[in-house]
Design brief:
single chain; 58 residues
Length: 58
C-alpha cells in the first residue's frame, strides 16, 4: 500500500506497435530484451507512463 492512495482504477500494459497485443496487463519479456520506460513525450516508442489523478485532499 501507498500512504494516501485509496485505490488504482486501471493499469494498462502493452508493447509499442506489436502486431498481436498479447494478454492485457501481462507482457512476456524475452531473455534478450530490456524494458524501457523513458517517459519522453518526443519518443513515446521508448516507453511512457500516463497518470490520471482524481480527487485529493479537501
Amino acid at each position: 500500500m501507498i500512504e494516501g492512495v485509496d485505490h488504482v482504477i486501471a493499469v494498462a500494459v502493452k508493447r509499442w506497435n506489436e502486431a498481436t497485443p498479447g494478454t492485457p496487463g501481462v507482457i512476456e519479456v524475452r531473455s534478450n530484451e530490456i524494458i524501457q520506460v523513458r517517459n519522453d513525450p518526443d519518443h513515446r516508442e521508448k516507453g511512457f507512463i500516463d497518470f490520471t489523478v482524481k480527487g485529493g485532499r479537501q
